[in-house]
Fold this protein.
Amino acid sequence: MITDKTPLVQVRHLVQTFNAGKKDEVRALQDVSFDIYKGETLGLVGESGSGKTTTGRALIRLYQPTSGEVLFAGQDIAKLKNGSAQMLAFRRQTQMIFQDPYASLNPRMKVKDIIAEGLDIHHLVHSPQERDARVAELLAEVGLNEDHASRYPHEFSGGQRQRIGIARALAVEPQFIIADEPISALDVSIQAQVVNLLKDIQDKKGLTYLFIAHDLSMVKYISDRIAVMHNGRLVELASAAEVYHHPLHPYTKSLLSAIPEPDPDSERQRVPIAYDARQAEGGQRQLVEVLPAHYVYATAAEVAAYRQSN
Amino acid sequence: MERILEVKDLAIDFATYAGTVHAIRHVDFHLDKGETLAIVGESGSGKSVTMRTVMGLLANNARVVSGSVKLAGEDILHKSEKALNQMRGNEVAMIFQDPMTSLDPTMPIGKQVAEPLLLHTKATRAHAMKEAARVLALVGIPDAQARLKDYPHQFSGGQRQRIVIAIAIINHPKLLIADEPTTALDVTVQAQIVHLLKDIQAKLDTAIIFITHDLGVVAGIADRVAVMYAGKIIEYGTVDEIFYNPMHPYTWGLLEAMPTLSATRKRLFAIPGTPPDLLTPPQGDAFAPRNPYAMKIDQEQEPPFFAVSKTHAAATWLLHPDAPAVDPPAEIKRRKQIWAQKEGNHDYR
Ligand SMILES: Nc1ncnc2c1ncn2[C@@H]1O[C@H](COP(=O)(O)OP(=O)(O)OP(=O)(O)O)[C@@H](O)[C@H]1O
Ligand SMILES: Nc1ncnc2c1ncn2[C@@H]1O[C@H](COP(=O)(O)OP(=O)(O)OP(=O)(O)O)[C@@H](O)[C@H]1O
Ligand SMILES: [Mg+2]
Ligand SMILES: [Mg+2]
C-alpha cells in the first residue's frame, strides 16, 4: 500500500510516433501524462494496439520520445549518457518483464545464464558458487526448481518461460518493475501464484510496479490505481475500486462489460456494451480531474455531466 | 455426427539433455463436425504438444510412444511430410500460442495472409491480396489495405495475433485449432474474436479446438471441455458439467483460482506447489502432492476414469464407490447447487 505519494516515475506529455511522415505513420502515444508513486502498483489496461507496451518501453528508454519527457526519481531519462554510472544504475533499478516469453529469452543460452546475466553485468555475485546459489534461489522464488537451471528455453512451456523472465528481472533487485502482461501466458492457477508472488515481493522489498494487462479482473487484485488507455491516450485514471465500481469513460464501461465470467449461464446471456470511438472524437478534450483523484479524458461539457451524475 | 478428429492413447516423449520428458501420457479425445472443444490446464500440461501432434508438427526430439491420431478418418502419424503440408492450411489450420514465431518477420503481412490461398487454391495473386485485406479487416486490423506491406514488428502483440487468425481462416479449414488465441488480447477484442470464431463456425460448420486458461472464455465458447494435468486428461464433460458439477480436485482448484469482479478477497486462491517434473512422472496420481483431498491410494496407484454421466468422467479416486465422502470448497458447493437446481432433484456429491 502507498503511504506517501512521492512520484517515482513522472510521464509528461509523452508523444511517440512511429514512421513519422510516412504512409504508415502510427501515432502510438498522443500526449500521455501520469505519475507512478513510490511503492504503488499502477495497472495499465486497454485495447490491443492502444499503446501500453510502447508506454512501458518508453519508461526503460527503449525509444527516444517524439516529444515530452519521462522522469525517473526526478531525472529526465532521455538525458542519461550511455555508459555513465547513472545510466547503469537506471538500467538496474528499472526492469521489464516482457509480454512475449518466447521472443524475450535467448534460445542459445541456458536458463541459469539468462537469469544471471544481470548479476554478471552489475557484479552482484563474486563466485560461481554464489552465482549458482542465487540462481537456484530465484528459480525457487518463481516456482521453478534447480534442475531447470541447465536447460534451454525451448524445453519449457510458455508459462514456464514467463517465470524465467520474472526471475531474470528480480535478479538485480530493481526498484521499479514494468510487467508487460506477465501473466497472460499463464494458466489461472499459476496466474494467481504469480500475482500473489509479485505482491509478496512488493511488500517485502517496497517495489513499484507498472502492471500492464488486458485482464481487468486480475489487475484489480494487484493494482492500487488503474489507468485505462485507448488509441494512444489515457482515457481514465483512478483508484482500482473507483474504476471498477464507478467507471465514467464509455470505453472503460465497455471494457468492464466484456469481461467473461467462469459461468456458462451468464456467458450465454452476456451483452457487451459496444464502444464507438467516434463518441470520443472532436471537441476539446483533455485528462481532467473530474472527481478527487479520478481523471477522465473529456470535454468541458462531459466533465460537467460526469460531476452532475455523481 | 461426422467425426472430424479421433485421438487414441496418444503418448509422446521428448529426448533432452536431462533425460526423457514424458510430455503426453496416454490421451484420448474426439471431436465432431461443428463442435467446440476447450482444453484447459496448467502450463506445461501438454496442451500445445498434443495439438502440434494433430497438426503433424512434432519437434525433432519428439517420439510417438503410442497411439493414433485420425483426422477426417486419415491417420496423421503415418503421413508423409508432403501429405501433411497439403493438409495444413487446408483441412486443418492452427492459430499458434505465440504470434511472433508463427509470422515470418521478413515478409510483409499481406503476403503471409494470402499465402494459403496461393498454395492451396487457384486464386490469382491480385485476388489473394484482395481477399487478404478483406480477412484482415474482418479480424479487426484498422486500415488493412494500407498496411498490407507492413512487417510483423510494426504491429502490437494483439494485432499480430489477429493477423495469425486471418491466415488460419482465409482458407475455411474443417478443423481450426486455436492455441490461446486471445491471451494477448484485451477483453473487448477477445469478445470480438470469440464472436468471430463462432460466426465462422456457424457459417462453415468448422470444428474448433480452443486451448485457453481463461475459464471465462471457455464458459462462453465451449460445447465440451477437457481438463489436462501433467500430460493427461483428468476430467472431461459438457461445459455445464465441468462448470457446475466438477469432480476432480484439480478442476476445483482451477475454478477457485478464477478472480471474479464481484469478489473482494484480497488474496487470490492459488493451487499450492508446482506440477511434477515429467522427467520422472510420479507413480500414483500426479496431482496428489498438491491435492488437499489426496488419500493413501493416490500416492500409490494412478486413478482410472470413473464415469459420471454418458458425457462426463473424471480420473480421481474420490469417485471410487469406497471413497469417503468429502466436503468440496465453498465455491464448488455453490456451483454444485446450481447443478442440482438444473437437474431437478439430482443427487450431488
Ligand atoms: N516499432 C513500431 N513501428 C511501427 N508501429 C509500431 C511499432 N511498435 C508499435 N507500433 C504501433 O503502435 C501502436 C501501439 O502498439 P503497442 O505495442 O504499444 O500496443 P499495446 O497496447 O501494447 O497492444 P497489445 O495489447 O496488443 O500488446 C500499434 O498500432 C502498433 O501497431
Ligand atoms: N521440444 C521439446 N523438448 C523437450 N520438452 C518439451 C519440448 N516441447 C515441450 N516440452 C515439454 O512438454 C511439456 C508440455 O508442453 P506444452 O508446450 O504442451 O505445454 P502447454 O500445456 O501448452 O503449456 P502452456 O500453457 O504454458 O502453453 C512441458 O513440460 C514442456 O517443457
Ligand atoms: Mg503490448
Ligand atoms: Mg501451450
Remarks:
- Chain A is about 35% helix and 25% strand.
- Residues 41 and 223 of chain A are 5 Å apart (CA to CA).
- Residues 188-205 of chain A form the longest helix (18 residues).
- Chain A touches chain B through 67 residues (CB under 8 Å).
